[in-house]
Design goal:
Chain B is an all-alpha fold. Chain B has one domain: ABC transporter involved in vitamin B12 uptake, BtuC (Orthogonal Bundle). Chain B has eleven helices and two strands, in the order ααααββααααααα. In chain B, strands 1-2 form a two-stranded antiparallel sheet. Chain C has a two-stranded antiparallel sheet with strand order 1-2. Classes of the chains: A alpha/beta, B mainly alpha, C mainly alpha.
Chain lengths: ~240, ~290, ~325
């Protein structure tokens, strides 16, 4: 199970004069849950966008199962089994919840009936099947977040990247998402999770990547990272690190 | 000849700038692309024409009157139409202003016939010769007038309280509302101001341009393209776009073919947005 | 407020009933003006439905559909007069060439969104009008006259009766509606709507945005061109200011918006209401001065955008839900 599924090699991303990512390299192993953390503006979402093709890469390479997917268009990336959610929920507001998921299901099912069946299954899996015929845009935020997960799941990803799927949820709600993530891991899906809520992600992840100001400053197990002085500095400032 | 064309192009561009500035202002404050903008230029041209015919007031001197007339017309249009569509779906906003333009152009046809009219001779006439460059004085006067009006509007927006409210709304609608700015009042005022810009340009254009109902479509489209070329939300962009269009019009008209000049202007626009979809000075996502 | 969606579509039986009425209409109403009006209802209905594929389903709001209309009209007129190609084949070739044009010209333009896209479509239409006005090879501003032939289905000319024209345009109208009917129930239709709602989300779900946008533009251009070719045969001449008139673009968009966009019934309903209204006001006011009828038409557009921004389908939906909730 421990083969590399995603390799990011020396990745750079510049926005005009602003360097958002600087020489980021890491490898994800198949079947693991990886947490990607870092303070605001660290470049987490940019990294997601680069990997999934939503933002062009300035320099560097992204290999998915040994295949170079750098700067592939987003739809092609998804078709190869790499799905994602967005920090700001991206759903199809004027379509029903079921139709939202069906759009993703069409990747594997050409017929409307077939797609509907797949969609129903994904809705059940993400626990929002009671909203099936509601207009997606009219859902409350937590339901929208789950819908987005269902949309990503129905594309049958081998690597799923979740961007703050638990932000703004109540403790019970994020426990549900935690459980969902663990279930996905059991099914063999590799996950990368961006999260601000540390207590939500730390207990369930196998590995942690820490990004600060576009640089990958640490990686390792949750424990190793928590004790890393650079990480402490990034989160709490210089003074706190020196006093320790 | 080249310098001559560049000078003529820039003079024309200044007038286009004033029209575009009004369009840009209205977009900034209420998110409405005014597809009827050219119709207001046309109305002001007729107003100036009748000012000249009936009251014997020169179009150049008539400009302040045109500004006032069109300002109140703009506020009126906002009160009876725009405020009701401003929160509607994109297509109904778009078609409402289209319908308005259609209404005004055909009203002009009905009232004043589709015939071409011109003002015989404006008080500023003749040609000014600097070396080999000939500057037609009516055009020069109109361009200077346009620059003056544009500068006044610009100062107004930067220096007055109302102007600052307009800026605040353009930057952040919610924030402005929270600060206690009366959105409806400012929107009505801005719409009036935007239309007044078109009115000033119309009155200035009347000194040397043909006056006919369908002139509205031409100026409307030029202003839209200038703003899209420069980038929505950027007044400087609208200026730049308008100057480019003015230059393409005179240079293209001479070196390519006068019949093709407008096609050339729109093609250049299409070419530029191909590379920069957000316009030359537009920021962020399209 | 959460919104539950159950009955979004126009009931099929109403469509079938409408089809029956359409088939018998010219036998019941013999008035020539009424028959002409019916032909224009179908022609604009055809174009509005084509607009709907792009605008209503895929969210590409065009106000320059006349570009496709005019190119279709010119291509079939040109092929017929210069190469003697049968009008029916010319109609088809005109459609295909226009679809190709739509895809090629649409490639850069389809990257634009919202107002930028709409403005680009007007600019494009204007470029076409100017080009055809100055292109000597196709008659420049004079346009092309079609020779009068013996009347038959093969020559696509009928002089004694309007009926054949009526049934031909009815046939084309039914075809475009069938295409939309099938589209609504297919993967492609779902993809179109997904792109309209949220391009990023659509890409994230594996949709090739450029491909599906161009597909919808291509289909839309094809059917709009058929309407143009039909007009060529119907009026036996083409002229730049006639077949590239910007008012056609606005009317097409207005018919679709008036009816309600993004649904099969919308453009049909819109054409049924708007075209007779404008044709009859034109006939009624036409002699009293040019412009007055179009002035009223402009006012009507404004009033409608204010009162019913979601279109007649929105109105119908409101009425039908009211009925359902009341005992």
């Amino acid at each position: 199970m421990n083969t590399a599924i995603l390799q990011v090699e020396d990745l750079y991303k510049d926005f005009g004069g602003l360097r958002a990512l600087s020489g980021v390299s890491f490898t994800l192993k198949e079947g693991e849950i990886t947490a990607l953390i870092g303070p605001n503006g660290a470049g987490k979402t940019t990294l997601f966008n680069c990997i999934t093709g939503f933002t062009p890469v300035t320099k560097g390479k992204i290999l998915y199962r040994g295949k170079n997917i750098t700067n592939w268009p987003p739809h092609k990336v998804v078709r190869h089994g790499l799905a994602r959610t967005f920090q700001v929920v991206q759903i199809l507001d004027d379509m029903t919840v079921e139709e939202n998921v069906m759009v993703g299901a069409f990747l594997h099912e050409k017929t409307v009936q077939g797609a509907r069946l797949l969609a129903r299954k994904a809705l059940q899996q993400s626990g929002i099947d009671h909203y099936t015929e509601h207009l997606a845009g009219s859902l409350p935020i937590p339901a929208k977040k789950r819908l987005e997960i269902a949309m990503a799941l129905v594309t049958k990803p081998t690597l799923l990247m979740l961007d703050e799927s638990m932000a703004g949820l109540t403790p019970t709600e994020f426990r549900d998402v935690q459980e969902l993530i663990l279930n996905l891991k059991k099914e063999g899906v590799t996950l990368v999770v961006v999260e601000h809520v540390m207590e939500a992600i730390m207990p369930i992840c196998d590995r942690v990547l820490v990004l600060n100001l576009g640089v990958l400053i640490a990686q390792g197990t949750a424990k190793e990272v928590a004790e890393n002085p650079d990480v402490i500095k990034a989160y709490l400032g210089d003074k706190y690190a020196r006093n320790r | 000849m080249f310098i001559q064309l560049v000078v003529s192009g820039l003079l024309l561009g200044c007038i286009y700038s004033l029209i575009s500035m009004g369009l840009s202002l209205i977009w900034g404050v209420m998110g409405i692309v005014n597809f009827a903008h050219g119709a207001f230029v046309m109305l002001a041209m007729y107003a100036a024409y009748y000012g000249d015919q009936l009251l014997r007031i020169d179009p150049l001197l008539f400009t302040p009157v045109a500004i006032l007339l069109l300002f109140f017309l703009g506020v009126l249009v906002y009160q009876i139409i725009i405020q009701y569509v401003v929160d509607g779906p994109y297509v109904s906003r778009l078609l409402a202003t289209f319908g308005l333009g259609f209404f005004l152009i055909n009203m002009a046809q009905f009232l004043w016939s589709p015939n071409f009219r011109t003002i015989k001779e404006s008080m500023v006439h003749g040609v000014w010769k600097i070396g080999s460059v000939m500057i037609e004085l009516p055009k020069l006067a109109s361009s200077l007038g346009s620059i003056l009006v544009a500068a006044l509007v610009f100062l107004f927006i930067r220096k007055t309280r109302t102007g600052q409210a307009i800026q605040a709304i353009s930057a952040d609608k919610m924030g402005a509302a929270l600060m206690g700015i009366n959105l409806k009042r400012i929107a009505a005022f801005s719409f009036g101001l935007g239309i007044a810009c078109a009115g000033a340009a119309g009155s200035l254009l009347a000194t040397f341009y043909y006056i006919f109902p369908d002139v509205a479509s031409l100026f409307g489209l030029i202003a839209l393209v200038a703003v899209a070329l420069g980038g929505f939300g950027s007044v400087e962009g609208a200026f730049l776009g308008a100057l480019i269009l003015g230059l393409v019009e005179t240079l293209g008209g001479y070196y390519v073919d006068p019949n093709w000049k407008y096609a050339l202007m729109f093609l250049i626009y299409l070419g530029i947005v191909l590379i920069r979809p957000q316009g030359l000075l537009g920021r962020g996502k399209v | 407020m959460m919104e539950l969606v159950r009955h979004r579509r126009f009931p099929t039986f109403i469509l079938l009933f409408g089809l029956f009425i359409a088939l018998v209409f010219p036998w019941v109403v013999r008035d020539r003006f009424a028959q002409n009006t019916a032909i224009f209802v179908l022609m604009y209905g055809l174009m509005a439905q084509a607009w709907n594929i792009m605008g209503g389903y895929t969210g590409l709001i065009s106000v320059g559909q006349v570009a496709y209309f005019g190119i279709g009209a010119y291509t079939s007129a040109f092929l017929y007069t210069h190469f003697g190609i049968n009008p029916w084949i010319a109609l088809l070739i005109g459609g295909l060439i226009t679809a190709l044009f739509g895809v090629i010209a649409g490639y850069p333009v389809s990257k634009l969104r919202g107002r930028y896209f709409s403005i680009a479509t007007i600019a494009m239409a204007e470029v076409m009008r100017i080009s055809f006005s100055n292109w000597e090879y196709v008659g420049a501003a004079r346009g092309i006259q079609l020779p009068i032939e013996k009347e038959s289905l093969l020559t696509f000319q009928f002089h004694s009766s309007r009926l054949p024209y009526y049934y031909i345009i009815l046939f084309l109208f039914i075809v475009v509606n069938l295409v939309v009917y099938v589209l609504e129930r297919s993967r492609t239709g779902f993809y179109f709507r997904a792109i309209r709602d949220n391009e990023e989300a659509a890409a994230g779900l594996g949709i090739n945005r450029s491909f599906y946008k161009l597909l919808s533009i291509g289909i839309s251009a094809f059917f709009t061109a058929l309407a143009g070719s039909f007009l060529t045969q119907f009026s036996l001449y083409v002229e730049p200011d006639y077949v590239f008139a910007s008012s056609i673009s606005i009317t097409v968009a207005m018919v679709a918006v008036l009816g309600g966009i993004g649904s099969l019934g919308g453009p049909i309903l819109g054409a049924l209401v708007l075209i007779p209204l404008s044709e009859y006001t034109r006939a009624w006011l036409g002699k009293q001065g040019q412009g007055l009828d179009l002035m009223l038409y402009g006012a009507l557009i404004i009033v409608f955008c204010i009162l019913e921004p979601k279109g007649l389908m929105g109105l119908w939906k409101r009425i039908s839900t009211k009925k359902r909730t009341s005992p």
